[in-house]
Amino acid sequence: MGRVRTSMGIALVAGAVLAGTSACGGNSSASTPPKDDAKASASQPVATASPKPTTPKPLGPPMLLDTITPQTGSTVGVAMPISVVFSNPVATSARAGVEKAMKISTSVPTTGAWHWFSSTRVDFRPENYWKPGTKVTLDAEMKNVPNGNGRYGTHSYTHSFTIGDDNEATVSVKDHSMKVTHNGAVVKTMPIDAGSSTWPSWDGTMAVIDKSKEVRMTSCSVGISCNKSSPDYYDLTLPWDVHLTTSGTYIHYSTGDPYPGHSVGSHGCVHLSMANAKWFYNYVKQGDPVTISGSPRGKAPGDNGYADFNLSWTSWLKDSGAGQITTGPAA
């Protein structure tokens, strides 16, 4: 099976999921976002009354946006970044101009900045978590914007989404527990088991990428073991999976650890009982922050899914082209 990311050959795919594997498995198939949403996000050409319409000569090959996340019209958690992936590299010299063309408006003033994880991926996050209820709009006015490598934007795109309630989960590896809060109030505490000393869980804050009722997880797909006689070999389809990193970290139920709260035996994932895994699956949404502490592995890299808040604000600004901005309602 395996998570597969497929280029759509269009300027935008709305709500796409980044792909990967991990020590926990994470071998699941990704759904392809509806193409209609992608087409609707691009500004449509305006008809002209001229009997001899002309098409301006392109400045160069097109600079295309591969994905914009989150999906327009969605409601997401307080740790969800805006993540834009380009089909071709953007030169360092052009990044400030690209950022300025991607205008962000918010219903309440918000301090934030773009950050380039690579020449093709740039994320926007606030300095601190989004305020619940904030309405966010990205107006990417990309037409004729250069990428510094001979390509130019050809379209404008608009994405709007809403920040939902502040649902957060904190996992203590050493205490074998996970606490879930809603707008600051504790709603549930559950026993968990996390990664072993050989296959430790990631530390730090990871925004939920997505969730699946079932995920096939295999040790061979992530380089743990392809030997069926190995004690580390597994090929399992497990229920109630909440996806935390593109390297494949999940919170889920495990048939090999049905009553968690006493050991550290996973390959990096966080195990819940069947009832608690189902409850958590139904409770969380994309962008809700999950913070794991007490694991020796260290913090997940910021681009390992949506672990953007694992970077300090100072570190975040170091890879911003235009620097810190304060957003507000559209003019």
Automatic annotation (TrEMBL):
Gene Ontology BP terms: cell wall organization; peptidoglycan-protein cross-linking; regulation of cell shape
InterPro entries: Big_10, LD-transpeptidase, LD_TPept_cat_dom, Transpep_catalytic_dom
Pfam families listed in its UniProt record: Big_10, YkuD
Pathway: Cell wall biogenesis; peptidoglycan biosynthesis
Signal peptide span: 1-19
Source superkingdom: Bacteria
Domain L,D-TPase catalytic: 167-293
The entry's keywords: Acyltransferase, Cell shape, Cell wall biogenesis/degradation, Lipoprotein, Peptidoglycan synthesis, Signal, Transferase
Gene Ontology MF annotations: acyltransferase activity; peptidoglycan L,D-transpeptidase activity
Location of the region described as Disordered in the Swiss-Prot/TrEMBL record: 24-70
Gene3D superfamilies according to UniProt: 2.60.40.3710, L,D-transpeptidase catalytic domain-like (2.40.440.10)
Protein name as annotated: Lipoprotein-anchoring transpeptidase ErfK/SrfK
Gene source species: Actinacidiphila yanglinensis
